[in-house]
Design goal:
about 10% strand; mainly alpha; single chain
Length: about 150
């Protein structure tokens, strides 16, 4: 990337870099469907044992015991799947709220963009209190201190 400290990247260079390297986002997996969650949870040995105990109880002419046992298993699985779904949605909402912004020099202008739009070769300008929006090479700094606690 032909780049200098006063001009930054041009829009054409940004397009080329984005096509070559992609966006500045972590690849996130699509959350599993509720049906997949049910099947993964129902494969747990303890729940298989409880279901087997309920079926044995049913065959031993104890329908009330079997019904109560299987109903409890159903309630626990349903509640767990529901809570996992809510937790996934809460994490997605937090990620959307916490989407960092970056100040970059492009075509000689200092602009603010979402960090997901950063490309290789961008000149990022950091100020006190800013979060580092990507892996960066430091070209110039004065009294630099970093708090790495967000990494852990």
């Amino acid at each position: 990337m032909a780049n200098n400290l006063s001009r930054g990247l041009t829009e054409q260079e940004v397009s080329v870099a984005r096509a070559q390297f992609g966006s500045n986002v972590l690849n996130s997996q699509k959350p599993p469907s509720p049906l997949k969650r049910i099947f993964s949870f129902a494969k747990e040995p303890m729940f298989l044992l409880l279901i087997a105990a309920g079926l044995v109880s049913l065959f031993l002419a104890e329908p009330i015991d079997a019904a109560v046992l299987l109903l409890m298993v159903f309630i626990v699985i349903t509640t767990t799947v529901y809570q996992e779904g809510r937790a996934e949605k809460a994490l997605e909402a937090l990620n959307a709220i916490a989407a960092p912004q970056a100040h970059v020099i492009r075509a000689g202008q200092l602009i603010q963009i979402p960090s997901s739009e950063l490309v290789v070769g961008d000149l990022v300008v950091l100020a006190e209190g800013d979060r580092v929006p990507a892996d960066l090479e430091i070209l110039e700094c004065s009294n630099l201190m970093l708090d790495e606690s967000t990494l852990t």
